Amino acid sequence: METRVAVLGIIVDNTESVEKMNGILHIYAPYIIGRMGIPYREKDLSIISIAMDAPQDTINALSGKIGKLTGVSVKAAYANTRDKHE
pLDDT (tens digit, 9 = 90+) per residue, 23-69? Predict the structure, then answer.
């Protein structure tokens, strides 16, 4: 199966969406390489980066689900290389 390496940049400015977002991320845990969260208290928001290795459709699905949450913005950046796992 062809996979891509990507980083999702997530900005959360509604703390009520954090629990739902974490639930979604838990479902996609097998594809997550690592996660880093930075609370930016002065602006009352959180900055999260998610490194993934997953099929393109899986990355799109995760990004779409997170992006639908209230007060959450997400963008994906992709590595130029593709890898095939059998």
Answer: 999 999 999 999 999 999 999 999 999 999 999 999 999 999 999 99
Q: How many domains does the chain have?
A: 1
Asked whether the beta carbons of 7 and 52 are under 8 A apart, the reply is yes
Question: Domain range for residue 29?
Answer: 2-80
CATH number of the structural domain spanning residue 72: 3.30.70.1150
Residue that is written with structure tokens 């594809």 in the block:
31
For residues 48 and 66, what is the distance between their CA atoms, to the nearest angstrom?
12
Distance from C-alpha of 57 to C-alpha of 6, rounded to nearest angstrom: 12
Q: What is the pTM of this model?
A: 0.88
